[in-house]
User: Fold these one by one.
Assistant:
Number 1:
Amino acid sequence: MPYAPLRHRFRRPLISVAAAATASLLAQPLVAQTANAEEDSILQEVTITAEDQLRQAVGVSTITAQDIENRPPANDLSELIRTMPGVNLTGASSTGAFGNQRQIDIRGMGPENTLILIDGKPVQSRSSSMMRRTGERNTRGDSNWVPASAVERIEVLRGPAAARYGSGAAGGVVNIVTKKPTDQLTGEATVYYRTPQEGNEGDSKRLGFNLAGPLAENLSFRLYGNVAKTDRDEPGINLGVGEQASPAAGREGVRNRDIDGLLRWDLTPDQVLEFEAGLSRQGSIYTGERFIQGALNPIQQQLTDSGAETNRTLRRTASVTHRGNWGDLGNSRVIFQYEDTNRRYINEGAAGSSEGAFTDPITWNNSELKNYYLNGEMYTPLNLGGMSHVLTTGVEYRKEKIKDPGSQNANPPAGFESSGTGKASADTWAVYLEDNIALSEALVLTPGVRLDHHDNFGSNWSPSLNATYQLNDQWSINGGVARAFKAPNIYQSNPEYWYTTMGNGCPIGISGPCYIQGNPDLKPETSINKEIGVAWNNHQGWDASLAFFDNDYKNKIVADMPNAAPDDYGTFRRFQWFNAGKAKVRGLEGSLNIPLLGNHGDTLKLFNNLTVMDQNKNKETGQPLSIIPKYTLNSTLDWRINDKFNTELTATVYGKQKPRTLGSRGQELTTEGRGSYALFGLRANYTINKNLRAGFGVENLGNKRLYRTANSESAGAASYNEPGRAYYFTLTGSF
């Protein structure tokens, strides 16, 4: 999807502002090198107005480049995105396996229901990692493909408005917008170093650059690159914590290499072509994963001592984008993207072996995922029946192809044929229509509908209705309802997916071996997402919002053996992925920003947002969908001492986290939740001169450390490590 619609979703007092913001965002690349100073000023003013209104609006948040500079992430953008309302980091399920591989989870719908975009183009590289029977993937997610120094802003869209983005957006959308070509040659380089106070935690270092400018009268470019490394924790960081016989190790490390180039050709003042290509490599640095009787086994020890990478992901992209201004017909945008992901990983033991239980001798597998994406949209301003409209019409095509021999955890049982390649593919077509209608100066109504047709799972309708009512110049009410969906992923639906487990992994009372096979007869997961909120802004620096969201979720795809009857083949039992019953996700989001000093708080201001999860569970089993805090409070005290020097004091408070009480085999679990805790940080940034900036800070001031006690569902909520106090320094030079 294009980035523009994310900017004009909710909370604009007049349709004229929405239309102007949309038009300016679409037109800006077209006129960047041709518009006169007066036109540039108008466009900039309208764009900034729209962005300020949406910074912490109901259902929408924007992280700016200045925010990233003030609070730089050590490596992954998810470290910053998690501070937005409604956002947390969780594993892909509530079992605890791969607990330190936490990903962006919006409104408790899980990482698989969070759609990641880069410049409006979907990112699906995490889908190259096999989904285990309890829903986990051994993946870091898709939020670490763009270095922090290359980001212009990050837009986070939550709630019913996300439904128009199709499969996988039921929770919300994160759009990472990169820096664009400029009309003058500019360059920037950033170095970052972070060192933990505790010697058994890994440090981080990165170097990134951006270069942009004109090549000819109508030709410009942008190039960014990045080299980064976060070291692993010491393997024994969790030893002696809790009463687990086989505790997991700490956080693995990661090596990043990124380079991306964009070439923009202004064909005319109203028509532009952009060609982009990128290459990224991520390698996970092994940290031991699992201890037996206080020690690693020989294979794990060998991998740990050598600093080995146990999986390496290579992501290659190429895209072409056309933007056009067609006068009274409006503006258009057409994107074609090819995304190729190759993941090389060490085979983990079969027969239900635990996370990190590698085979002896070590063997490798390759997963190859190819995604083709074509999308076209038209934005047309209309005046019908005396009312102003901004009509969006779109068409989309996606093709996904995978080959992963490792998805056959073991050879299929006798009587079942398989190519042994793990090949599968899926095609999806979609058309959608959305209209921003100004019914009056105060009321904006946004009806929409999207039709997706999946070649394996048929057609799916996603209607939506959102509205904004401006009570007066300070108060507005926002509401929406939408039907969202998620198609079965390419592993769950592939009959060549085979996962096997012996007696220890079968349901209680059933002897092994037990097999799980992909199921081509699945139904898409669906949810009815509802939201209502109120926003207040007194135009003196005070503003607040409060939203209630309620999602009714059904047909969640699971392979929980106790809830399904196996096919009995005598010598083995076969299970399949299936559609489970209903689930409920419900909660509150709020924000309150308080000016303390200066004009509208421009010297000292307190920013706050709060998320409260009331329900997040399977209605039939009562089990949580993911391990998520009962509440999350983020606060930032921003002190702009002068034009050159500013500081931030940050605090995040996490509420209690509820674990599973029923295991995937049907066994009762005696597990403990994770209690509430708080993290504090102190940061400062200083502009040395117009070409040099420095930043430094302390994270986790109170040195509140949390430990992972095991690598399975018996860990309860203690499925991840929270690192202790750390110090960082960053320096940016530019011209």
Number 2:
Amino acid sequence: MNLHTVVVGPSDVNADDVLAVARGGARVELSPSAVEAVAASREVIDALAAKPEPVYGVSTGFGALAVRHISPELRAQLQRSLVRSHAAGMGPRVEREVVRALMFLRLKTLASGRTGVRPVVVETMAELLNAGITPVVHEYGSLGCSGDLAPLAHCAQVLMGEGLAEGPGTGEEGSEGTIRPAAELLAEAGITPVELREKEGLALINGTDGMLGMLVMACADLARLFTSADITAALSLEALLGTDRVLAPELHAIRPHPGQAASAENMRRVLAGSELTGHHQDDAPRVQDAYSIRCAPQVAGAGRDTLAHARLVAERELAAAVDNPVVLPDGRVESNGNFHGAPVAYVLDFLAVAVADLGSIAERRTDRLLDKNRSHGLPPFLADDPGVDSGLMIAQYTQAALVSENKRLAVPASVDSIPSSAMQEDHVSMGWSAARKLRTAVDNLARIIAVELVAASRAIEMRQWGNPNASPAQATREILKATREAGVQGPGTDRFLAPDLAEAEAFVRSGGLVDAAESATGLLA
């Protein structure tokens, strides 16, 4: 059981809170000040609902149907109908962690006291998260404007005791429960379904929570992968007998991009004490190493700076209360356009570009390690008996396929817009689509880095066979030891290669590669 608790108040939460709830199963607790803020904003909505003048979301229809005034006896039905009709997603199920992030972020906004829902709505949402009940949300249904409508509607439907949800599972990390009717799961957990009142259905579905949750998780994953890429780039430089002089701090100080300096310093520290570097002037003299080696900090560093910008946007969005209309501190209820996902969509697409390029340069290094004409003395494809053995030839094919897919995924979603709701919602962000493709790209990047790790570690070991007196860096030795202990086999005759690649991928994803390097270097950026 995870005993960690995230307290949600009327102010913003942070990225660590999102990760704790989405991935760590942390419990959620509402602060007394949050409940007070929610109750106060509800008084404003109740007062408006009692007036004869129409107020959007309170006593009117929605979208292009907002012209109709809804009488008091139909308003509960209005909110139910809104949720049911908007729960129109299709396609595969969305991952449990994404749904938990989406629910938690909607809870965060509801608890801000800016949406006008009753305290019972917020309290029940927290109960769902704490019970481990996860609504079934589908891949398609959000245009990233007027909120992640269909995904959030599927969550709101479960709050009402309708639709389908996944149970809490066995309690073990990563376990999944059975898909069952939400009413059964709520009853077993002792949770009373919510009967929605004025504005509450709208408040439950009108936010950027899905795309924001995926952005927060992608940023966390990429922080580890950028460090991993610096490490494998250093290993490749070492395996190719390149020079580490290009990593000198004074060279990067005269082009003061912080990400570039951080990546160069990571590589320099990994390579400290290596007896393999600096031999580029030996048998086949090189004036300079190839771009994929020499410019590794510039490319990875640009990605790091992109990540820093994305995190800034995420922090701002985490501090936001996204709904329409909103209850302002002075009691006014105003329509607005804050639900538009453009700020989040842009950085999701920006990250996909950086991810694609980082994978591309890693693949070029791998290809260089395998090409006897460019590897400076390594056997073709790092094969044990070239011709009889193919070595890592097809591992590079797999890596190239992943790189190619990431290039396609780098095409921005946010430049597209398809009008909806009878042209009332005539410009949308496609931020949900940007987030979904970024998740795939990040997964692919982990695999691309894993292939470079397999190739570079094998190359270094084979290099030592030819020159046993030339010792790799201390960090490299720790990495090779940990990689082999993780189940990734070293050089030898051809064997079933997919298990090695899978173990390398798991090693990279888990942070094992970074941990191994840091055991020698200390904390890396």
Number 3:
Amino acid sequence: MGAQSIEVGTEPPSPAEVVAVARDGARVGLSAAAEGAMAASRAHIEELAARPTPVYGVSTGFGALASRHIPPELRTRLQLNIVRSHAAGTGPEVEREVVRAMMLLRLKTLATGRTGARPETARALAALLNAGITPVVHEYGSLGCSGDLAPLAHVALALLGEGRVRDADDRLIPAADALKRADLRPVELGAKEGLALLNGTDGMLGMLVLALHDLRGLLTAADIATAMSVEALLGTDRVFDADLQALRPHPGQAASAANLRLLLAGSPIVESHRGPDDTRVQDAYSLRCAPQVNGAFRDTVAHAALVADRELAAAVDNPVVLSDGRVESNGNFHGAPIAYALDFLAIPIADAASMAERRTDRMLDKARSFGLPPFLAADPGVDSGHMIAQYTQASIVAELKRLAVPASVDSIPSSAMQEDHVSLGWNAARKLRRAVDGYARVVAIELFTAARALDLRAPLSPGPATAAVLAALRRHVPPPGPDRHLSPEIDAATALVRDGALVAAAESVTGPLA
């Protein structure tokens, strides 16, 4: 596991810390402040548990069964049963990074001292993370209200030594065996602790944080691909001038246009047709309006990041222990704020991808490419060039449009109409993950195609920044030639887009890009 260590306290973790735990195996521990806050709230729960007055989640059933008062001798079984019964997910396994993010975020909420869980229960969850034990969580099961109940129940089940997990070597084994090998003991739940481990929006929030991390890098890569397409299509950079962009003062638009100016600075290709001999008045929308579209995408990411930051600072549970010791029911577990942000992001992904595909298609069409060979083929007719790469890109874009249909506008009542409106935020998060993956491939195919087109513009050469990107790509993808197997080259380009290598190549010339 990772060497980095993160202290989980009463203050929220940063998005970067969530990514470090989820993807890099960073270790976690509880701060002294968190232990103190948890001990104080636990004392209130113990006192309430001793009273004859029913308290939801402490001495009552759950959901539509909350009207039943549970006698003291059945309360341990009550907490055990909620975990077992709610671990009802089905379908494929959810990715390890998602489960680890979810575990950290539930630990974060326990550490606030607002759930009434014991410090030792939180320490057990941290120990599970540090041992690299990842509970098996399934694709289907969450309605996003009361939070991600079924996914979190599968995590809690592993704490009890039940269900299945992936160990640090990714072997699928019984949770009891994994705990024993890691020298960990199963948790014995106290009053309210079963509910405290389940009642949160941690799955959908974890997926939002991971998506935002990925999209920030992809947005910069998208600007790089756009700049290369502008050069390849003999477009102008004048439309990206700061004074023109300032007429519509959206911050994302300004950032995207600034990137394009840096990336196209000193381009011999752009300079080659800057003059009275160029009779074109305007470029096509897919070139001219790129900062407006990619910029609006950036602004949507900024809004979603604001939502994520607020949620990271939240304590989502029901009932919740307040600072004065009151234990109150509430609706903070409803996933609507996160669900909307997840759905919002899927819309500009589909639109920006659609614009990227139009630029790709333009480079392949001899009627619109200003002198490039049909489909960028070495011997058009004998060779097909990038014809089918564009088909692949178009297929992904079509799927992205379907994934842009919001999940959060739907609701299926549950729990005998007690839970009569749900967010379906988990569903929004799952489709966003697929959309982010598709968008990375769309950007890669545009960049991969633009690189071939730039090579075919020789003896004209691209600007210093895009030339550096082209050189970085060529270390993994060969230059133009007769037809060859394209799938591995597309995958190589996608990997370079995802890991930031092409952004780093551009920034070696431009300095930091937005």
